[in-house]
Design goal:
The chain has about 220 residues and is mainly α. The chain has 2 domains: about 100 residues, Orthogonal Bundle (Endonuclease Iii, domain 2), CATH 1.10.1670; about 100 residues, Orthogonal Bundle (Endonuclease III, domain 1), CATH 1.10.340. The protein is built from 12 helices and no strands. Helix 2 packs across helix 3, helix 2 runs antiparallel to helix 8 and helix 9 packs across helix 11.
């Protein structure tokens, strides 16, 4: 199977079996999504969704969050991984959005990465989910799944993975392909014991082909 054929198979499979894939983070607006994504770094979406309602109740918008103190915000996110840093990042993010962007969450990767706690992956998530821009956020799931299936070749970094995926996935499908790969990695192509028996991508998967060859 050629690389072009592999991508075609994978995209067709997901289009048929997960046409409405979307983020599992719960949010109502760009501000809430940005807070949730910052909190989700090295933390499960389930834990974040348990935590954010109290934050959004006390800090309903970026202006309210910009006035938060560390001692007020920290107790609300202490169950999240790296709560000290994330508390500082959220307050710093809110202040910069208010001071530099007139209270509006930026809509470009270049602007978003200027915010505290926002790296390329987070910026790609925001622009992809909110604005459906053709940006591919690469987390551990996307990185692993892409390599296993064979969508990427010798990609050593998230950026290398991102660029290879963008080269082959049609622009109009990038925003949903991000969710396809994440959810597949979260529930089927898991890190330690991938559920190959349940996976519909077996005919196109290099990892599965190696398992068959070795058995």
């Amino acid at each position: 199977m050629t690389q072009k054929e592999r991508y075609a198979f994978v995209l067709k499979y997901f289009e048929e079996h997960a046409p409405n894939a979307e983020t599992e983070l719960i949010y109502d607006n760009p501000y809430q999504l940005l807070v949730a994504v910052i909190l989700s770094a090295q933390c499960t979406d389930k834990r974040v969704n348990m935590t954010t309602p109290a934050i959004f109740e006390q800090y309903p918008d970026v202006y309210a969050l910009s006035k938060a103190t560390f001692d007020d915000l920290f107790p609300l996110i202490r169950s999240i991984s790296y709560p000290n840093n994330k508390t500082k990042h959220l307050i710093g993010m809110a202040n910069m959005v208010v001071d530099d962007f007139n209270g509006e969450i930026p809509a470009t990767v270049a602007e978003l990465v200027k915010l505290p706690g926002v790296g390329r992956k987070t910026a790609n998530v925001i622009t992809s989910v909110v604005h459906q821009q053709p940006n591919m956020a690469v987390d551990t799931h996307v990185f692993r799944v892409s390599a296993r299936i064979g969508l990427t070749t010798n990609a050593k970094t998230p950026l290398q993975t991102e660029l290879q995926l963008l080269k082959h996935i049609p622009k109009e499908k990038v925003h949903i392909a991000h969710h396809w790969l994440i959810l597949h990695g979260r529930y089927i192509c898991v890190a330690r014991s991938p559920k190959c028996g349940e996976c519909g991508l077996r005919p196109a998967c290099k990892y599965y082909a190696k398992l068959i060859k070795a058995s």
